[in-house]
Amino acid sequence: MSDACTREGQLTLSSYSTLPTSPRSPNHDSPRSQYCGYGWVSAVLLVPLLVQDLAAMNGVEAANLTERCDTTKEDYECVMHIFGNHYLDPGAISLYVSSFSAVISFVVSLSVAAIADHGAYRKRLLAAFAILGCMTSVSFFIIQSPSLFWMALVLSPLGWACYNASSVFTNAFLPIYVRVHPKVLEAQDRVEAHLTLQEMDEKNKDFFRANHRMSSNFYPCGTALTNPTGTNYAVLVKEQRKIEEQVSNDLSAWCAGAGIVGTVIVQGVCIGISVGMKESLLSLQIAIAFTGVWWLAWTMAVLPWLNARPGPPLPEGQNWIAYSWSKNFKTIKAMRQLSQITRFILAWFLLSDGINTVTALLYVITYQELKFTHTESLMMTIALSSVSFFGTYLFLMIRRFWKLSTKFMAMLTLGLYTALTAYFVIMPYFSTVYGLRQDWEVWVSVVYLGLIISTFFGVAKVMMAELCPEGEENEWFSLFQLADKGSSWIGPFATGAIQAVTGEFRPGFWFPFALFVVGGAILFTVDMNKGKDEAVRYTADQEAKRRLLASIPPITITTAGESPFLARSVLLDL
Which of 233, 287, 344, 390 lies at a C-alpha separation of 20 to 30 Å from 89? Predict the structure, then answer.
């Protein structure tokens, strides 16, 4: 290689550390810690138990429809009159209420989610929904008699809507904090530096061509600049994505752990309330109110230190709800350009409903058929949360040790879910003793679910964070939440209908089993690398369109005005 080329390469490489870096400032430990701290607001909602108790108190004996239900009996079996000759089991009513709550949550989340991508609305809406959620939880004290059962049907959807809307905003912080993590920014700077050097290579080649000095001896000059250490652009991008995936999984796991600890604390307090008040209806109301106060208190404690990373200002004169729906409609239209994230959201639409249905059925069967008490139901949740804490870090260590991808972890945990559901489905056909008919089966199932549930939801959020376009996190996570809550009414509704037809809850496990099989097949086809490339191209295309529109001057249309010499101007906003 010629001396000229070598000197040029050394001069350029010496400036490596001074090349322009990302305009986004690095995120430090404090904001990430506060994001994890928000996980502490995870509060178990005891509303399904309250709904079942109120339905039973308003019901009649299943064996004698003319006799009022006596809930003081140990093994009471009651149904509630709906209309005409139609009666429903309290457990089925609880499933239908959950289904209706999911629909309301879906509408609310879709109506406000896109707003959070503008300004600092993400933090403000977190606070607003925490306040509304706390007020809803405390309002359950209004229900002082079984005749006010309808109040529970109103408050339950409101509480779930507030909680799920908050989940949209908190989930949207994950990709933002990952992208400004120091390790991720360092990897991104290496990629940008390589591109800058590549551009300088092209300028050097143009210079030599212009001065007629280009010869075979100067061809290696380009590789001296853009490939100084034997690396290339593709290798650097691959390294950057591995670092992003590592940071995403670590942050998700630590936040899940914080949320689990908070859940265990809340459940412990609720058990104390339940035992101290002999599992009365009032004890459930106090426990629900406590979860709401806990939610609000931790939200307000975390928000001052939560870095909002504000987005562009909201367009003036826009109606919040109309703007949010129009933005979500545009996001759905954009799915044609993002084939892999579309597949993932479709898979999540099915899988999330299956997972929620398995958990709901497990609690209904234990409460209605195995006659678990309020305290035992709360202990189930504590056991589930405690085991999931260890399960989160167990699978995190497994992933690190074998260097497994996020998608592989999702498929692994989904396979474990499917295996347990297959046991619930198949065993009742071969035995009248087993198949979720023994208390020990319940506790084994709780431990089994605890090991995988937090990991599955965590890797799903990480996959979504990796696939969604930059700058539109709230819109895409609202679509992610849309897929979750938009389908979560289907499972409870379907299993409630199966129970109404068969008289049993266990056949309902066929529904989530089918969802796991179909959803797993779709998830298997998702290509993460292709999806990330699509997201980068989409972001670049959107930015190019915005710049193009900003560069076009407004068009002035002149029409006949009041003066023959002066026309009226109408500006068309392009």
Answer: 287
Domain housing 433 = 27-209+225-307+325-549
Report how far Cα 238 is from the mean position of its chain's Cα atoms.
25
Does residue 315 sit in helix, strand or coil?
coil
443 within domain boundaries? yes
Q: Which long-range contacts (CB under 8 A, 24 or more apart) does 229-232 make?
A: 231/194, 232/194
More confident residue, 119 or 171: 171
Structural contact between residues 273 and 283, judged by C-beta atoms closer than 8 angstroms: yes
Burial class (CB in 10 A: 0-12, 13-18, 19+), 250: middle
| Residue 33: alpha-carbon gap to chain centroid | 19
Domain of residue 453, CATH code: 1.20.1250.20
Contacts of 362 (CB under 8 A, 6+ apart): 436, 442, 445, 446, 449
What Cα–Cα distance (Å) separates residue 392 from each residue in 34, 396, 452?
Answer: 20, 6, 7
Which tokens hold the place of 143?
């229900």
Inside any domain, residue 219? no
Residue of 492, 419, 428 whose CA lies nearest to 449: 419
Kindly state the tokens that stand for 15: 């400036």
> Distance from first CA to last CA of the chain, Å, rounded?
54
Domain count, the chain: 1
Q: Residue length, the chain?
A: 574
Residue of 164 and 231 predicted with greater confidence:
164
3-class SS of residue 475: helix
pLDDT per residue over 343-396, tens digit each?
Answer: 999 999 999 989 988 988 998 899 888 888 878 888 888 888 888 888 888 988
Exposure string (b/e) for 111-138, b if CB count within 10 Å is 16 or more? bbbbbbbbeebbbebbeebbbbbbebbb
Paired residues of 558 in beta bridges:
569
- The DSSP output letter for 335 is T
Strand partners, 572: 555
Would 163 be classed as within a structural domain?
A: yes
Residue 61's φ and ψ, nearest 5 degrees, are -65, 135
pLDDT digits (tens, 9 = 90+) for 111-164: 877 776 666 677 788 888 889 988 998 898 888 788 888 888 889 888 888 887
288, 155 Cβ separation under 8 angstroms: no
Entry pTM: 0.65
Q: What stretches of 453-546 adopt beta strand conformation (E)?
A: none
User: How far apart, in whole angstroms, are the C-alpha atoms of residue 98 and residue 91?
Assistant: 11
Confidence of residue 3 (pLDDT cuts 50, 70, 90): very low
Confirm whether 48 is domain-assigned. yes
What is the C-alpha separation between 551 and 548, in angstroms, rounded? 5
Q: Are 527 and 535 in contact (CB under 8 A)?
A: no
